[in-house]
Amino acid sequence: MGPGDDDSANPAIDRIRQEVNAAIFSTPPPLSQDDPLAASMHSLPARGCPDAYKKYSNTHMLGGERQTNYTELAECQRACLMSANCVGIDWNKESNRDNTDRCYFISPQSAVGFRSRMKNTCCDHYRRTLCNGKI
After folding, report:
1. Residues contacting 78, CB < 8 A, separation 6+
2. How far is CA 112 from CA 25, 38, 62, 64, 77, in A?
3. Which of 9-13, 17-21, 52-56 has the lowest mean pLDDT?
4. 7, 46, 62, 96 — which has fewest CB within 10 A?
5. What digits encode the pLDDT tens for the residues 56-81?
C-alpha cells in the first residue's frame, strides 16, 4: 500500500484505529478518597506511566468543561482522578486569569470531535494515563 492508496477497506488498519480510539477515549477508573495519590500530594507527577498524568505543555483541547471549585493545579488533577468521567484536564496558566477560570475537565463526551490537542501557550493539557498496556 503506497501513499494516496485508500486504506478504508483494510481490516488490519481498521482494527488498529479502533484499538487506538478505545485506548485514547476510555475513562480510567476513579481513585477513592482513601488513595494516597488522590489525598496527599501537593503536585502530581506528569510524565506518563506510571504517573497518573502525561503533561502536554502549551497545549489544550477544545470542549473542556470549566470547574470553578479548583484554584490550584493539584486540586484540579486530584478531582479529575476521582471523577469517573474525566480523561484529562486543561490548566490555564495565564497570569491574568481569575483563579476560578483555570481548571477544565476533559470528558470522553467533550472530546468528541476535538480529538487532537491544539497548540496554545495559555494552557497545559494533562492526559490521564492508563498503565495497563493500552496507552
Report:
1. 31, 38, 39, 41, 44
2. 9, 27, 10, 11, 21
3. 17-21
4. 96
5. 999 988 888 999 999 999 999 999 99
The CATH number linked to 99 is 3.50.4
Highest mean pLDDT among 9-13, 27-31, 75-79, 115-119: 75-79
In a domain, 100, yes or no: yes
- In sequence order, which residues have a C-beta less than 8 Å from that of residue 32 and are 6 or more positions away? 38, 82
Domain extent at residue 37: 30-128
Does some domain include residue 38? yes
Alpha carbon distance 111, 109 (integer Å): 5
Residue at 7 is within a domain: no
C-alpha cell recorded at residue 103: 481548571
- Cβ contact 127:51 at 8 Å: no
